[in-house]
Design brief:
Layout (H helix, E strand, L loop, with lengths): L11 H11 L6 E2 L16 H13 L12 H11 L9 E6 L1 H16 L4 E6 L3 H10 L2 E6 L1 E2 L4 E2 L1 H9 L6 E5 L12 H14 L2 E6 L13 H9 L3 E6 L12 E6 L3 H16 L8 H11 L1 H33 L14 E3 L4 H11 L1 E2 L5 E3 L5 H15 L1
The structure holds 4'-deoxy-4'-aminopyridoxal-5'-phosphate (PMP).
């Protein structure tokens, strides 16, 4: 049966991780990694997570099944953290999923069940798994202009021109904050312009939120999607708790679907539960319960917020240090655009060959499209990384 079996090409990011692991050089620098790291190179279990897990260990009386859509307490906690009061709770259907990827997958499954001919419009570029999952499901997708490599910012005119041409019932996929892979975010006037455009075209927004708290703050990072939620009759939101709770392997995600009325929401809620049922039945509960525990307890929540702030500040400090070092190395402001980008990621204007050269000759690892993760840097590696980048890119 499997004699002629061929595996699909490995994920770009996983390929870089493997190359890095196999490199024997002691001074290699990993900017390819997609996770937060401390200066010691660890992706830590957050203090509030440990405390919540201790409580669960002591107090949890059963591991019995919860519900196909997950725990309503978890839904409410993440709904409040993300949407806040921007839309009425009885208009929002919720589905707990394995990670944000699971939420994205189930969101696309829902769209396909609703309309097999739907087109999903994705930012150019976007997180490659968006496109991969859409391809797997046979859903049509079309990039809209987004990143302006010349400025390192948003191609606002290009984006709005492309979004003006989308059809009623199409879906426009946006990144809630900390755009992956570019770090180029929308400001509130951009979100407002998108809301106006969607209202004109009748397209539906889907927002993917994987880095809340890594941009400016927990609330500022969702101000844009809250603006959309207040303005739009329908919207999808996919949330990952992997990064901001450090719960990567526990797989914590949520899909939220805003509909026009509570009655429609009830119907969609039924379909969401069915989507989980025929995929894996019950979603993982442990990490979701940890998130709920943290968000519902004032003291744990304060600890978590403080630790998340520390993580964000470290990423911002590394971003600023790299921009400064690149200024010195290149004697130019060519890389100052890094300062206006948000979150862990930025994109260097590097060709695939230059990325390979950085890896081969300097032991500096990044994704083939030039995506770098600031959390892969520590004070000691900023200068050598900048020097290698300057040498290869100028
Ligand atoms: N969306 C985006 C844009 C992401 O960057 C990620 C994490 N790489 C995810 C969704 C989902 O992450 P996870 O499945 O690990 O929660």
């Amino acid at each position: 049966m499997f004699e002629n079996h061929k595996a699909p090409e490995a994920d770009k990011i996983l390929r870089v991780m493997k190359l890095f692991a196999d490199d024997p050089r002691a001074d290699k620098i990993d900017l390819g990694v997609g996770v937060y790291r401390t200066p010691e190179g660890l992706t830590p279990v957050m203090g509030a997570v440990k405390a919540a897990e201790r409580r669960l260990l002591e107090e949890q009386a059963t591991k019995g099944y919860v519900a196909l859509a997950g725990d309503p307490g978890f839904h409410a906690a993440l709904r409040q953290l993300t949407f806040g009061d921007s839309a009425a709770a009885d208009r929002i259907a919720c589905l707990a999923t394995p990670g944000g990827t699971g939420a994205v997958r189930q969101a696309f499954e829902l769209l396909k069940a609703q309309n097999p001919h739907v087109t999903v419009h994705t930012s150019a570029p976007t997180w490659p798994n968006h496109e991969a999952i859409l391809d797997t499901l046979g859903i049509r997708w079309q990039p809209y202009r987004y990143y302006d490599a010349a400025t390192g910012g948003l191609d606002r005119d290009g984006m709005l021109a492309d979004l003006a041409a989308v059809k009623r019932g199409d879906v426009v996929l946006l990144h809630g904050c900390c755009h992956n892979p570019t770090g180029a975010d929308l400001d509130l006037s951009d979100w407002q312009a998108i809301a106006d455009s969607l209202s004109r075209t009748g397209a539906v927004p889907m927002v993917d939120l994987a880095y809340q708290g890594f941009g400016n703050s927990l609330d500022e990072d969702v101000a844009g999607l809250r603006l959309l939620a207040a303005a739009m009759p329908e919207m999808l939101l996919t949330v990952s708790s992997s990064k901001n709770f450090g719960l990567y392997r526990d797989r914590v995600g949520l899909l939220l679907v805003l509909t026009e009325t509570p009655a429609i929401t009830q119907a969609v809620q039924g379909t969401l539960a069915w989507l989980n049922r025929q995929s894996y039945a019950f979603p993982p509960d442990h990490g979701a319960r940890v998130v709920t525990e943290i968000l519902s307890d004032a003291s744990l929540r304060a600890d978590w917020t403080a630790e998340l702030t520390e993580m964000r500040d470290r990423v911002i400090a590394m971003r600023e240090a790299l921009a400064k070092a690149l200024r010195l190395e290149t004697q130019s402001d060519r890389f100052d655009y890094l300062l206006s980008q948000k979150g862990m990621f930025s994109r260097l204007p590097a060709s695939e060959d230059q990325v390979a050269q950085l890896r081969r000759e300097h032991g500096v690892y990044m994704i083939g499209d030039g995506r770098i993760n600031m959390a892969g840097l520590i004070e000691e590696t900023v200068r050598p990384a900048a020097s290698a980048i300057a040498r290869v890119l100028t």
